[in-house]
Amino acid sequence: MDGNDVNSNANETGVSAAKESIENGQKVVPDVVFTVNGKSEDTSTQVRMEPFDRPKVDEDAFQDAVKRCQKVLEKLGYPYTSVDAEKNLEIDESDELTENEDHDNPMATEDDGIPQNERKVETRKMDCTSGQLVAPKHIEKREEVLPSPPNHDSSNPEGVIDPIQVVRYTLRTCYVIWKKRQKNSEIALKGLMIVLELCLSQPSARDEIFAAFLETLGYNTVTFWKSVVPQIYNSDLSFSTQYREALLFSLVLYDVNHSKNRLRELYAAVPGVRQSMLGIRAKQFGERYRHLQMKMARSRASSRMSSKVGSEENLPSMASIVNDTVFDEEPGQQVPLVDMSHDKQRVINVSNAPPVSISRKTSGSWEIKQGSGGLVACVDPVMSADKNNIWLSNLGVNMQEELKEHSTSTNSLGLPLIKQASAGEVFCVLERNDKKKELTPKEQAVESDMSLLSVLNTYNKHSYQLNPVVVNQDDYNCYYGGISNGLLWPALHNLPQYISSCYDDPETLREQWCSYVRVNYLFAINAARNSRAQDFIWIHDYHLMLCGQIMRSLESSLDIGFFLHIPFQPPPNFMTKYKTVADPILRALLRFTKVGFQTSRDRETFVKLVAANIKRTRVEYDSRLDRYTIEHDGWTCSLGVFPVSIKISDFISIAENPQTIIESTDIKNNIMGKSAEGGQLFFSVERFDYTKGIMEKLRAWQRYFEKYPDRLGKDVLLQVAVTNRRSVDSYRQYQDDVLALTDLINKKYHSDEHPEWKPVIFETDGLPRTKLIAHYLAMDIGVVTPSKDGMNLVAKEMLVCNPTASLVLSTGAGTEVQLSNANFYSENTGKCYHRVEEIGDAEAFADNFYAAATETKESRKSHGEKINEFLCVHDIDEWSDQFLDPKWTHEVISQCEVKQLGQFYGLMSRTGQVRRQIVECVLKGLPIRPHFGYSLENAKNSLEMSCHDGTKLTLEADEESGEEKGFEITYDIRDELSEMEKDIAFLVFIQSDEYENAEEFIKTLGSFYEGGPVVFKNEVKQAAEVLQQGIHYSTFFTDRDGTLKSYACSYPTSVQPAYSAVIQAQFARRCATFCAILTTAPLIHTGILEVATIPEGYYAYGASAGREWYLNPAQQFKDRSFSVNDLNLMNKVFELIEELLEKPEFRIFKWIGSGIQKHCGHITIARQDVRGSIPERKVNRLHEQLVKIVNDFDKTGTILTMRESDLEFKIYVKAKLKGRIFNKGHGIRLVKERLKPNMSKGNCLVCGDNESDIPMLDECLKLAGSRVYTLWVTADLSLQEKVAKLCERYSCTNIHFVSCPQVLLGAMAYATAHTLTDERNRNIDYYYDSDTPMEPEESLDA
């Protein structure tokens, strides 16, 4: 059930309850919102509230809550008096943590299970190391100290009680008692719920109490929500309250103010809250349904299937088919290995201002017109490119007042839904207009709003989707007229004198800040509900700075960008005087994936503020991409500079229109015809705003005629200042002062020779675009001189339309910063415009006017054409393309030359992160984001570009590697490059129309096979046939390196490819019950968990040959067959070997193969790389040193033993009973004992590639015998013979050998897809030609 359904039910139930509460003419008040075990309190003073009503403090409700708290305290035996305000309760937040039980296992001989290719080295000692995850420390429990019932406070004879202190005391006392789960805990829970009810009844007014509430609950918050949330829902349904919405908003407000994410605790307690709120199931259903329709259109499915799915009238049948994914297709056709059915990416644009203007005609109907303004001009081209794009905004229409008596539930557009009881009447009226006279005034208002819905639906059919966000009018006034334009607008323009003085009062600031948060919350939740996983959400401007943080708390995987259209130049005291607002905004901006600024100046200011005021941040700058990256609290944000531009073609087409040219000539003649010859027309157009520098411009214009009287009668300033925001006191006063100065100038300056000449022509009405462009063509000099501005597109429009004009431009305009950075104003390349450094300097400003007026036409034309050419290249399409392009963000691995060890390992680690994201998306059926492919391509290109002699990569030491300067090593990275190529091919495959055909990808893998695709295909089919014979497997045990993945040049670079992880995960999901990967590598530092890319839940990991096991953070255990003293000894040996490998002679062994690894029970040291490039004399020298270390520590040879293979040395700690070496067979025995997988019944699959895997096979054969199926990746005939003989001993004939890991993976993919097909074909028999599926038993009986 989605959130709308819950709200709708709540309101309907509440209305009926209200009707039933009138008995015998007396109103019966509903029971208390929260009850414990059905018990209720008297709620005669219970306050009803709208879910997002304006913050209001109802002292009656507060006093009632205090009285109820006192009753609870008395029942608990801890009544409150004023002395308790001074007491401080000790609250213990620690949880009981217990360590897993030790495992002890009887051991046999020392050589039991040791691979024969590991030769015993004669030593007498070996130290041990655990390599295990750190066991949690025991935390000693403290008894919470509760105060004794307090005595009377003599200092307070009148017994005056502070209600806030009562609530806080109740909170802490009840929490301590409830947490113990002892006597009276139910009463204590009731006390906590009373406090919560108070907070939710007045969420904005009680945010400080709610913050204390959450902080008191601490680590027990999830447990508390599990107990309380069902009662909150029951309250909403029973009494028509809105406490669920209030709870969500309260958590959001807390998270914003404290930079936390406590909302996720509610998700953890009640997972359905998130799904309901975001409408997840409905969106998934819609995408699957659309995908099925497209699929059937391509494949021309049978008429029976078409009749089921082709019509929305049969929703139950369609839901069954979509959700169960059962298709009527030809038997034997392959089922896809992965489900990648999803729609393409859309842009969800979110702004306060709409792209349209809506007005109600005198007839009462609504009219919608395309809007204007900078934001619309910038974004409209992007949005118009796809009709599926969505624009969310506030339409400026307050429908909530008219629908106040109706339900506040919303439909998919976000508009309020009327109560169902009257809905039928209204819709009937919409169809039959002759009934209009029968409607009540309220019903007529509803009908009018429904006509708005109709207008919007019509608009959406022919354009992108316009969805309104409905906001309470009082909240909107505080959000828009208050915080946004009364504080943020002047502050970010560095005009503190225009900040409203009401914000000097902290309480007023806090109240209006709550409204700002609430409106941002409404925008955020609307955007999250309307978006899908693959969409990009684009938030615009200072009104909605919190949306990124709020949306990330709702859904962390959303891709959200923010663009600030105004400057970011706050005054010095912004972070201190307005800390309530400034801190949360600064932190919230860091939650966006990417943030764009108009100028580098604004970005630098933001970075400096973050570094100075936000702790625990990491700031990096990439000069190649001109990108800052900031990490904070686990989130990463990219900061870029993107100067906004205009749609050049639109302006040029109008400017070249003959009618526009004629109109411009008329404008020029009408104005300058009254002036002397040689006069210049100065033209300026902007909003009537104090940030535009209009007052300073007029003062400079006045000084211009004082200083240069010869220009009297010649030059004219045509100023168009479109009036806005007259309701704001600071704007109204400023506009009146400007108009007064204009009158003064016109009275003061005149020309006797030209009596009709006026120095200033001031207009306050806006100009249509065609007329505006005509003015651009008529002007001689454009004047754009704001005090502070984001970009100011007027300057660009002027010179795009009229490249022969001159331009006076202030440094406050973003356009000036962009042009200056492009060297259009420098001593060397020339000054192509007239720059006003400080608009308050009337003398210099006047000089710029004179320089522009006296500039020659040739110079003016030359300079204007240069700027015009630059602007035509950098148009609006470039701006939007660059911002939307993911390549510039931190999410994409950027291309670079790899020269150092740290760079190489860091690059491979990042590919691991990208691959994990790919695997997660594929397994969940989520869309593949473009930056995945870009990252892998860039990583591959970086490595190829850095190689010499084919695949040889030479690297030098750096700080990250910890090696001394001068150290170099050469790797053959053939495997790393090959696996990246396969992953890139895999991304292409799963995004193609062929993704359903697993054989197509197997064919792709074959293109990388040395023997050719034909040989590869045949080998895969042979292996797949063996696999299919044993499916379904009860257990599956496999090695990793060499079996499921080729050997890499070094273990840290042995990152599991995405395609391999998907195949393994799907095989585990479809073809086996219990799956485990056994490896000799450790879990961590650097271990299997760091190079694996399969999500948790598919495989258990047995590291250190199965001595330590990991399923998930809550399920991990290890072998305990050695003593603590043995472990300490092994740790000392490990430290000495580390010191040994720091010597220049042996340093190379740290960086090849396994390097040095610390396992649970043994140590691995690389002996040789896979190419055999290390000289044998150096290997022998290392061998001697390792033997010496072991002998020195274990002179009797009873604790340690050393082995060597072709690639590794291993030092084992002997088991504490019979001195046996732990191997993979013992690892299986350990996991069987602890997890108890069923090996007595069902088939068992075992895969390996070398001698160390034979004990694993041996143990499985002992347990499952002939039910074992085994595939080995080896061309070694002697190893094949050993495997065959071992299987023969247990009468096992299910043996197969393949040449490389890719063949085994291809066989697993083939077997998985065809196994699904077989199951699907069997399931089809269970369906007959009707709307509902039959049960399998029914069909068999039939």
Task: Write up what this structure looks like.
Keywords: Glycosyltransferase, Transferase. This is alpha,alpha-trehalose-phosphate synthase (UDP-forming). Its EC number is 2.4.1.15. One of its GO terms (biological process) is trehalose biosynthetic process. The chain is an alpha/beta fold and 1342 residues long. It is 46% helix and 12% strand. It is built from 45 helices and 36 strands. The strands form eight sheets. A nine-stranded mixed sheet has the order 8-7-4-9-10-11-14-13-12, with helices on both faces. An eight-stranded mixed sheet has the order 29-28-27-26-25-34-35-36, sandwiched between helices. Strands 17-16-15-18-19-22 form a six-stranded parallel sheet, with helices on both faces. The longest helix is centred in the middle third of the chain and has 25 residues, at 506-530. It is globular.
Brief rundown of the structure:
With about 1350 residues, this protein is α/β, with parallel strands linked by helices.
Q: How do the strands and helices of this protein lay out in sequence?
A:
Layout lengths: L2 H18 L1 E2 L2 E2 L31 H18 L42 E3 L41 H17 L5 H17 L5 H11 L3 H19 L3 H16 L4 H7 L1 H8 L1 H20 L3 H7 L5 H10 L22 E4 L5 E5 L5 E5 L3 H11 L5 E4 L26 H12 L9 H22 L2 E4 L4 H20 L13 H25 L5 E5 L6 H8 L4 E5 L10 H4 L1 H11 L4 E4 L2 H14 L3 E6 L4 E6 L2 E7 L6 H8 L2 H15 L8 E7 L6 H14 L8 E7 L6 H20 L11 E4 L5 H10 L2 E4 L8 H9 L4 E5 L3 H8 L3 E2 L3 E2 L2 E3 L5 H13 L2 H17 L2 H9 L16 H24 L5 H17 L5 E5 L11 E5 L1 H17 L7 H9 L6 H18 L2 E6 L19 H14 E7 L9 H4 L8 E4 L4 E5 L2 E4 L5 H18 L14 E3 L3 E5 L9 H18 L6 E5 L3 E6 L10 H12 L7 E6 L5 H11 L3 E6 L3 H13 L5 E4 L2 H24 ...
Parallel strand pairs: 4-7, 4-9, 7-8, 9-10, 10-11, 11-14, 15-16, 15-18, 16-17, 18-19, 19-22, 25-26, 25-34, 26-27, 34-35, 35-36
Antiparallel strand pairs: 1-2, 3-32, 5-6, 12-13, 13-14, 20-21, 23-24, 27-28, 28-29, 30-31, 31-33, 32-33
Function: Catalyzes the production of trehalose from glucose-6-phosphate and UDP-alpha-D-glucose in a 2 step process.
Family: In the C-terminal section; belongs to the gob-1 trehalose phosphatase family.
Protein name: alpha,alpha-trehalose-phosphate synthase (UDP-forming)
